[in-house]
Write a structure and sequence with these properties.
Residues 3-176 form the Thioredoxin domain. 27% of the residues lie in helices and 27% in strands. The chain is α+β, with helices and mostly antiparallel strands. It has a single domain, classed as Glutaredoxin, CATH 3.40.30. A hairpin with a 2-residue loop joins strand 1 (14-18) and strand 2 (21-26). The chain starts with 13 loop residues before the first strand and ends with a helix.
């Protein structure tokens, strides 16, 4: 698994569904210099854990908007599949009402470049290409700053849903550091004390906790 933290987020252009409309050549580049981005992968449309995450992000969009953060989802499904799922009522297993972008990665190149594809291609002894594993994305999440640099990543296995609270906490911590220049200790939350990144700062912090 590649560690992308500290590196530029891999570039892509792909079709996305945004608020019920197809958007061709969708790219995270549109947010450069303007917004932080939470770019996350989920395995498949019309499944079980995935809608709980997608809807949970939607339910917290006011908080992400208040922090000037773009939330973007992606799976290896087609944009037609995304559209069909988005058009399906929630009581019928759909995700109707989700209006942030869902990117289609049917070629699996985006998942591969972010190193979250849950399998790999290889050639067998007969020279034929095969795929080992699951041809879908793990539950990867990447926090990208306004300069396009990945500052945080987490990758869960397919059965394990993510914490939206933790995603918001990491956004808040990064923005606090960018604004104040102070670093955020273990379990830091908004409103709690941070510290200077010096020996004196650490000693002072630890002496009070």
């Amino acid at each position: 698994m590649a560690v992308l933290v500290g590196k530029r987020a891999p570039h892509f252009k792909a079709t996305a569904v945004v608020d019920g409309e197809f958007v061709e050549n969708f790219s995270l580049d549109q947010y450069l210099g303007k917004k932080h981005v939470l770019f996350y992968f989920y395995p498949m449309d019309f499944t079980f854990v995935c809608p709980t995450e997608i809807i949970a992000f939607q339910d917290r969009m006011k908080e992400f908007d208040a922090k000037n953060v773009a939330v973007v989802g992606c799976s290896t499904d087609t944009h037609f599949s995304h559209f069909a799922w988005l058009s399906t009522p929630r009581d019928k297993g759909g995700i109707e009402g989700v209006n942030y972008p869902l990117v289609a990665d049917a070629s699996k190149t985006i998942a591969t470049n972010y190193d979250v594809l849950a399998g790999e291609y290889h050639y067998n002894d007969e020279g034929q290409m095969e795929f080992t594993g699951a041809p879908v994305a793990y539950r990867g999440l990447f926090l990208i700053d306004k300069e396009g640099i990945v500052r945080h990543q987490v990758v869960n296995d397919l059965p394990l849903g993510r914490s939206i609270d933790e995603a918001l906490r990491m956004v808040t911590a990064l923005q606090y550091f960018e604004e104040k220049g102070e670093v955020c200790p273990a379990n830091w939350e908004e409103g709690k004390e941070a510290m200077q990144a010096t020996r004196e700062g650490v000693s002072s912090y630890l002496s009070r906790h």
